[in-house]
Amino acid sequence: MKLHDVKVYPSKAHLKREDQLAWKIAGVAADKVAVPKDTTEMIANRIIDNAAVAIAAINRRPVTSARGMALGHPRKDGATVFGVASGKRVSPEWAAWANGAAVRELDMHDTFLAADYAHPGDNIPPILAVAQTMGRSGRDLIRGLATGYEIHIDLVRAICLHEHKIDHIAHLAPAQAAGIGTLLGLKQDVIYQAVQQAVHVSFTTRQSRKGEISSWKAFAPAHAGKLAVEAVDRAMRGEGAPSPVYEGEDSVIAWMLDGPNAHYNVQLPEAGEAKRAILDSYTKEHSAEYQSQALIDLAFRMREQIADLGQIEKIVLHTSHHTHYVIGTGANDPQKMDPKASRETLDHSIMYIFAVALQDGRWHHVDSYAPRRAGRKDTVELWHKIETREDPEWTRRYHSRDPNELAFGGRVEVFMKDGSTLVDELAVANAHPLGARPFGREDYIRKFRTLTDGIITTREANRFLEAAQDVAKLPAGELHRLNVALPADLLAASKPGIF
Fold first, then answer.
1. Are the C-beta atoms of 69 and 222 separated by less than 8 Å?
2. At residue 468, what are phi and psi to the nearest 5 degrees?
3. What is the DSSP letter of 110?
4. Are 199 and 289 in contact (CB under 8 A)?
5. Which of 61, 101, 106, 123 shows the shortest CA–CA distance to 218?
6. pLDDT for 174-204, tens place per residue?
7. Alpha-carbon distance values, 38 to 275, 279, 482 (Å)
């Protein structure tokens, strides 16, 4: 990996494009280096993972709405839409929108956490949509996805967005554009312009994840994918972009991130170096914010040691800055303690999540968020006894570059009414690569079958799983086989709109 210094320059400096981060990202994307076998295998796993969570969410209102909008933009040689028979195609930017929303809705696909946060599986919908539309092969798709994951994760390692209240899709859109560039074999100067356009249009605020969280949480990465497809299309036609988008005097860094005195160190693969970043990411076993994964597993373990949950006086979760301030009591969001809050809010409330996991000893992507479940009297009582506190050591481990120290969990103290205290901790989720039960191919397949059970036919499940596991051998023009369709009568229709 090569370290690149990124800072702001005055316009009079005339920074050469070869010295700009967007140009260097484009260089990684244009590099025709081979994709390693383990990267290819993990890409297949994440294709399965994305399809699983998308189909599980297929008839939820945001997904239905996004699908309805996409179907208003038919294109005979276009891309497929999750849930819809593959013979019906739409324009790729709208497939990216619909499929991106479906993948993101349940908050249950892959994750990467470092200086900022990411769901790198959000790269798959737009890159796959363009691959289908342009008649590319499975091998082309793999190359594009390896780039998308690489650029996304490299940016997330280096540049913090959330401390400036910028939503994390600002790192996603340029990665998606770079991945599409690799997929299509575009030249570096074309990818450079596409990346800059994608950056420029994707900076938004984190209000989408604050207060009363709405369906935009699912739409945000889908919108990034749509923007990325459009950015590449414009660049392919010869259109330019705001430049230098990262380092300029009025750039995103100068005005939206660390400011004129900013200094970032971004590591990117050197020429000829394989793109392996996907191997550093991890999926979710439970449908909730990633920082809750280890704490859910910890709740399952601790409940076995508590004879009567009604005798709990108070629970304190000692955890990282992010967990405390984004999904904990440090967020100061009263909605996170409200039994009538939306599902999108509840899956960002570790107080609610820990209470239900402690009571039920299981986690279900639908049942655990049902209004009746959230409103249960004993759950509300327990929920309101839980608070979070930032612990500097957990924050340090959260940002550690040492994979053996990296941690997304916390230490839990349960104070009982009789004066006794139960203490336990867990650093990483069981499904994490360093966890008690790391996810492998069979786990991804089991997750797919569990989440799609009763929604698609066994025949359709088997057909898709065969295609996804053999993605590298899919010939040009056959990537529609990576779609998953429901029986037509089981697919909900959206409310009418403009399209």
1. no
2. -65, -40
3. -
4. no
5. 101
6. 999 999 999 999 999 999 999 999 999 999 9
7. 11, 8, 20
pLDDT at 43: 98
| β-pair type (312-319, 386-390) | parallel
3-state secondary structure 27-93: HHHHCCCCCCHHHHHHHHHHHHHHHHHHHHCCCCHHHHHHHHHHHCCEEEEEECCCECCCCCCECHH
Residue-wise pLDDT tens digits, 26-49: 999 999 999 999 999 999 999 999
CB atoms within 10 A of CB 388: 24
Of residues 371, 382, 378, 361, the one with CA closest to residue 340: 371
Q: How many CA atoms lie within 13 A of 188 on its CB side?
A: 15
- Rounded Cα–Cα distance for residues 438 and 441 (Å): 10
According to DSSP, the residues that pair with 315 across neighbouring strands are: 386, 414
Ordered DSSP codes for 420-475: -EEEEEESS-TTSTTSSS---HHHHHHHHHHHHTTTS-HHHHHHHHHHHHTGGGPP
Half-sphere exposure of 435 (CA within 13 A, CB side): 24
**Which residue in the block uniquely carries the two structure tokens 């280890």?**
294
Rounded Cα gap, residues 356 and 296, in angstroms: 9
Q: Of 354, 344, 302, 284, give the one whose Cα is nearest residue 323.
A: 354
CA neighbor of 191 nearest in space, from 35, 25, 33, 32:
25
Residue pointed to by tokens 């040689």: 77
Task: Give the domains, in start order, of the chain with CATH numbers.
Answer: 2-280 (1.10.4100.10), 290-426 (3.30.1330.120)
| Mean pLDDT, all residues of the chain | 96
Give first-to-last CA distance, the chain, whole Å.
46
CB atoms near residue 84 (< 10 Å)? 22
Q: Report the length, in residues, of the chain.
A: 499
Tokens representing 26 are 């484009």
Dihedral Cα 78, 82, 88, 90, nearest 10 deg: -30
Q: For residue 267, with 0-12 CB atoms within 10 Å meaning exposed, 13-18 middle and 19 or more buried, which class applies?
A: middle
Residues of the chain with pLDDT under 70: 209-213
Can you tell me the distance from the alpha carbon of 342 to that of 476, in angstroms, rounded to the nearest whole number? 42
How far CA 226 is from CA of 123, 156, 198, 253, 328, in Å, comes to: 11, 20, 10, 23, 32
**Cβ proximity of 352 and 383 under 8 Å:** yes
